[in-house]
Amino acid sequence: MKQVPETKVKLTDVKDLMEKGYNLLGELREDVGAPVVKAKFLTEEITAIYGEAAARQFYDPANFKREGAMPKPVLKTLFGEGGVQTLDGEAHHHRKHYFMDLMTPERMDDYHDILARHLTAALDRKHGEFELFGLANNVLFTAICEWAGINLDTYDAETVDKLAENQIAMISGAVTSPIDHLKGIKDRNKSEKWAKELIEEARKHPVPGKENYALYTFANATDLNGELLPVDVAAVELLNIIRPTVALTVWMTLMGHALFAGKDIYKELQSDFDRLQDPFIQEMRRFYPFFPMLPAVAVRDVEVDGYVIPEDSWVVLDLYGTNHDARTIDAPDEFRIDRYAGRAKEISYEEEYEMIAQGGGSFRDMHRCAGEWITLHSMRVFSDQLVNKYSFNVPEQDWTIPMDQFPTYPNSKALLFKE
């Protein structure tokens, strides 16, 4: 096995490198001419890996752990402290099962119907020009709250809008400017306070028949010793249902880019919708930038692509790079609507490492996003209504998707016009 090649990042290079955004890790690999690279900046070292074979190694708990891997700024904004993403072993399996038990086919059908109702109502109200981003943000928030058993009827419209915006701010504040980061922390604190109040109320006044709703699931969730989770941890896990669903605002806005920035994809999808809807969705998830990378810590010496990564190394798996890996994907920088035709279901329900937009491995046993099925249903609802149920004019706008922004989406936030 070979030693991992190293590149030293000079202080004067940091700004230029950060502007690479989603392409940063690819640039570092190109610098050393290897699929594995160690980048050293001042006293910090990080080893970056990518590709299907690397993902198989990364998700093996005998090789890597999540405890202590997530940077504090990300915990304080995006994931929260004590959540399922930071756990390993039996503690992770126990907590993850609460999430997976919510994702039954019946409850997914419920979510699909709830979201379709909310989206129809929102689009029916639209006349004139509007941003798909803002519409999706509100619709996804209100729909997931209803599905989770949260009653928003007691809040005024302004409060609901602010709660929805807070979910996006937590994401934007994870790896961005200091100002946005501070805003992300502030909005996470507000969201956690709201979620704690919901958990406390659910514990005091449980609603019969709603035990399998997310709010009541986490209100009653226990640790490995059978003790109720602390209120703040239960609140973090409730937000781990709400926030990632609202984060799909990004993908719905990127869907606007796929459908309306040019005409070919829209026409292809519309002409053969039943056959191409799910392949279109999976190609969207592969092609467009969403979550850039995931961190872990090596628990032993690990071989990846012929290079040895020493025990205790801080390692990141390049999700975007894996989904654009020319070693395993034909013409990865082309959007091919029929790339996954006949295999779309397999990609999310059976295949664990080929396309990892929301992580890889087994749903129940590994750190793959429990919300992948919510993602698929959300994209099905939006694609159906944007293509089949309504007609739009597309105003002139800036469709640029900045690669140095996280999360990223068209600068115009996908402007549409409806009569």
Overview of this structure, please?
With 419 residues, the chain is an alpha/beta fold. The protein has a domain at 72-284 and 339-418: Orthogonal Bundle (Cytochrome p450). Helices cover 50% and strands 10% of the residues. The chain has 17 helices and eleven strands. The strands form three sheets. A six-stranded mixed beta sheet has the order 2-3-4-10-7-5, with helices on both faces. Strands 1-9-8 form a three-stranded mixed beta sheet. It has a two-stranded antiparallel sheet with strand order 6-11. A hairpin with a 2-residue loop joins strand 3 and strand 4 (44-49). Helix 7 (132-148) packs antiparallel against helix 11, helix 9 packs across helix 11 (231-247) and helix 14 (273-287) packs across helix 17. The radius of gyration is 21 Å and the shape is globular. The model has no long low-confidence stretch (mean pLDDT 88).
Alpha-carbon distance between the termini?
Answer: 63 Å
The CATH topology of the domain at 72-284 and 339-418, please? Answer: Cytochrome p450
CATH superfamily of the domain at 72-284 and 339-418: Cytochrome P450
> Which structural class matches the secondary elements?
alpha/beta
Number of helices: 17
Helix content: 40-55%
Mean pLDDT: 88
Sequence stretches where pLDDT stays below 50 over 5 or more residues? none
CATH architecture tag of the domain at 72-284 and 339-418: Orthogonal Bundle
Q: Give the C-level CATH assignment of the domain at 72-284 and 339-418.
A: Mainly Alpha
Strand content: 5-15%
Count of DSSP strands:
11
Largest sheet: 6 strands, mixed
Order of SSEs: EEHHEEHEHHHEHHHHHHHHEEEEHHHE
Question: Rg to the nearest angstrom?
Answer: 21 Å
Shape: globular
